[in-house]
Amino acid sequence: VAEAALAAARARIRAGGDAAALLNEVYSDHGSVRDRTGFRIGDLVVLLQAELRLDDAPDAAATVLQDLVTSILNRRWVLGQATEPTVARRALDLLPTSFEPDWAARARTQLKNRTDQLRWAEAVASELELLATSVKVPDGEIRYIAGPDSTTLWGIATLRGDPYLFAFDLAALLDQLQTTASRSTANDADLVAELSVSRQPSEGALVRRSLGPYLQFVTLTVRHDDPVALDLQKARRRSVRIAIVLIAVFLVFVGVVLSARIVGREIENARMKADFAANVSHELRSPITQIRLKAEALQLDLCYDDDDRQAHYDAIVNESERLSRLVDNVLDFAAIERGAKRYNIRSDDLLEVVSLQLDSTMDTLRGRGMEVAVDLPEDLPPVWIDREAIGQVLINLLSNAAKYGAEGKWVGVTVENTPAGVELSVSDRGIGISEEELPLVFDDFFRSTDPLVRRKKGTGIGLAIVRYIVEAHGATITVDSEAGEGTTFTITFPTTPPPEV
Ligand code: ADP
Predict the structure, then answer these.
(1) Considering only CA atoms, which of 24, 100, 105 is closest in space to residue 62?
(2) Residue nearest ligand 1's atom 19 by CA
(3) Segment 238-279, tens digit of pLDDT
(4) Are 466 and 442 in contact (CB under 8 A)?
(5) Taking the C-alpha atoms of 232, 233, 236 and 238 in order, what is their torsion angle to the nearest 10 degrees?
(6) Burial class of residue 135, CB neighbours in 10 A (0-12, 13-18, 19+)
(7) Of the ranges 66-80, 124-138, 346-360, which one carries the lowest mean pLDDT score?
(8) Pocket of ligand 1 (CB under 6 A)
């Protein structure tokens, strides 16, 4: 529009129009606009006005041209739109040679310098633009660039369409960044931060990072001031970490093993309890059946003679004893498990207790074809015992000796006064106990897997009860056995009262 207006004004002036009025109108409407080649319409109008008046009023026209040149020289020139020098040169050419020659010469020199600068700036700008990476800012973008060995950081800003060129002192800038960086890492005195524009990888750097997006050409390198110490520290940390992992693995392993053991033991316990229930029922059934059969035979008078009848009576008594022993054991075991079993422990004569018990069981034992060898001392210091409980211990040991005594069925009962205390031993020459099962015989519900044992009836609580009773007395029990040779159980009673009595 501006160009068309100027062209129209020119045509009308050529046709004889009022030049001053026409040009003033164009100036006021489009003065600050540039045409397609970059010329300011205002400049062109002023130039034209002066040109038209040169003949009529050379002085006034020269002053206008002088003002135009001065204004152009004082103005900021824009890269890429360097039309100003052309206008200024044309204005200077139009000036009459007599008009202020000194000023004109100065203006020409100034114009030349500014034109050179513009050309140089345009060349640099286009060259830098090829290399730089750009950063978007609100009104345009800024490109920063510095060569690998450069001491200057160039910034080309394009803001609202106008390019600007800046140069920064790169060394000073890096110094300042360095100070800031070292201030922010000061709390870790072992670390050194360095800024550089070199792209060479530096030795021993912990971290290298470019300061993008604004300062991509600057690299921040962090290194340890003592790499040897750092390596040592790293090695130590690695060992600690490995140790922690190993410990964790070990703990997990121990945990798994322990859990497996606990679970295994629980399963074994459950199995033993199930066996126990089956064994108790079985043990109850057989004496009851025997008693019933014998009693019925007597009731129906099916015996041959008096001896046969007597044998029936004896059998009933024996089976009843067996039954009551079993019931005693089961009830005692239950009471012990509940923690309800109390013993009446007092200073007593062990010889008397052993003799009484042997007297009452001797007939039964002999009746079962057993040879009983008793070895008791003449005299014995009193020991701290519960008569009934020790009687039960003796019965359990004797009945085991009878059960597992194999052929021959020899049983030895010995009481001895030793420096360790008074010892009561029950021995047999039977099937013995294997070395692996020896530590288990006192466990609740334990029964050997040996078929010779399994053939005999049993519940697996006899020796457990013996152990509980012995422990309640503050006494000790040991077992000495060899498979196929025989077994000896020895209880050592202290002659002093147990702690809780
Ligand atoms: P049970 O009712 O099975 O006899 P105990 O608790 O009395 O239960 O004995 C546990 C296990 O110890 C027996 O099953 C047997 O394997 C072993 N045992 C006990 N006494 C003897 C012994 N005198 N000779 C051989 N083994 C024995």
Answers:
(1) 100
(2) 400
(3) 999 999 999 999 999 999 999 999 999 999 889 888 888 888
(4) yes
(5) -110
(6) middle
(7) 124-138
(8) 400-401, 404, 428, 430-433, 441, 446-448, 453, 458-464, 487
Does residue 328 have a pLDDT over 50?
yes
**3 state DSSP class of 115:** helix
Strands 410-418 and 371-375: parallel
Question: Which residues, including other chains, have CB under 8 Å from residue 379's CB and lie 6 or more apart?
Answer: 417
Tell me what pLDDT residue 22 has. 82
Q: How far apart are CA 163 and CA 88, in angstroms?
A: 22
Angle, alpha carbons 399-474-479 (nearest 5°):
40
Nearest CA to ligand 1 atom 4: 458
Residue nearest to atom 12 of ligand 1 (CA): 441
CA distance 318 to 366: 12
User: Ligand 1 center to residue 457 CA distance, Å?
Assistant: 10
Q: What is the mean pLDDT of residues 22-29?
A: 85
Per-residue pLDDT tens digits for 441-468: 999 888 998 998 988 888 899 999 999 9
Per-chain mean pLDDT for the chain: 86
Atom number in ligand 1 closest to CA 432? 25
* Amino acid of residue 445: F
CB-side neighbour CA atoms (13 Å) of 198: 8
DSSP 145: E
Tokens representing 465 are 């009860």
Peptide bond into 138 cis (omega under 30): no
Q: How far is CA 133 from CA 136, 154, 170, in A?
A: 10, 11, 17
What share of the chain in percent tops pLDDT 90?
39
